[in-house]
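Supplementary Note 2. Why include the ligand at all?

Several targets in our set were suspected to adopt different conformations when bound, so apo predictions alone were not considered sufficient. For every target with a known small-molecule partner we therefore ran a joint prediction. The input for beta-D-galactopyranose is given below.
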Amino acid sequence: MNAISRLSTAVSLAALMPLTALAGEVEVLHWWTSGGEKRAADTLQKLVEDQGHSWKDFAVAGGGGEAAMTVLKTRAVSGNPPAAAQIKGPDIQEWGELGLLADLNQVAEQNGWNELLPPQVIEVMQFGGDYVAVPVNVHRVNWLWINPEVFAKAGATPPTTLDEFFAAAEKLKAAGFMPLAHGGQPWQDSTVFEDLALAVLGPDDFHKAFVELDESVLTSAKMVEVFAALQKLRGYVDANAAGRDWNSATAMVMNGKAGMQIMGDWAKSEWSAAGKVAGSDYECLPFPGTQGSFAYNIDSLAMFKLSDADNRKAQEDLARTVLEPEFQQFFNQNKGSIPVRMDQDMSSFDACAQKSMVDFKAAAASGGLQPSLAHGMAASSYVQGAVFDVVTNFFNDPKADPQKAAQQLAAAIQAVQ
Ligand code: GAL
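The joint prediction is reproduced in token form.
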């Protein structure tokens, strides 16, 4: 029985049981609308409904969540935020400062969150020492997805270094395949940029550049090298990439049109939804040159203050459910991520997830664990936006100067601090 059918059995059994007296409604804002990600979101909806509550889906399409955040701001400004919203990283602090977030301390205490979660994660989920958000998963951003059949046809070797990556791209191109499936959207351009940065700079300088915003690293020769690599990589992207969604790019690798995709492991949600098996139908490789490093992207649901007691109960039940092992398993097996509970039994997860968990723990111990800039974990949304602008302008101009781009990067970051 797979996770979904186990879940529907649980749900149909629940339908026979009396509903709890305190049934409320939770409205949840997220951007998990691709086929695979929707399956993951549905697991949460079912578990919440299972407890007698009703789920109001507030899904706003658009990879990376920019559109969702715009809609959330409008709703919050009009005094009508949803019960829960996917808000991540340092942004949680910005919402906390507005005084809009609800305190989850009681749920956290009753369910031992302090013991379950890594300390770095706890810090992000709290505002002023109070829990205001609950983490759902850990995504890894520095992955390369390949179609082994296409590689075999092209005589290409799965790459472990940047040089090998470009050599593989060349072989794929020569054999008539699209070397790299990419979607030309700012957040996708910056996802690629950040993986190159992690490879070229290494985790320490990555941290200095994107967390400490250290000008000397932002303008360094290594950063110029990152932009130069991005320019070279751009040469392996097709002319129709502009505006393409990430899941359409995944589909191109899946159907054998393209050989590779650089994307976080939500890409795996599409492979899983299509019934493809990790290690045979597709392979997940740490992005070449970033073995030992782990750029993390933790999805989390921040909770807004509510006045209705039943809805508040539903909100607390949602928060509690998210960290229960059952949800952590169902959701993450569909979403492509790994559980945020470090004690989770990983035996029913696939090879990519098992590798991710091992790598996460090793990177946490070695200093290789770094927050993703492209996915809002490293710096404020203002810094993230400034980086997106510089990277995407550079990406779209094949003649752009890498040296100048590094200067522009530092200046753009400086301007929003
Ligand atoms: C990320 C988010 C992931 C996934 C991805 C593509 O920002 O954390 O969960 O949805 O965007 O939209």
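The domain at 141-296+368-416 is CATH 3.40.190.10 (D-Maltodextrin-Binding Protein; domain 2). The chain has 19 helices and 14 strands. Comparable summaries for the other entries are listed in the accompanying table.
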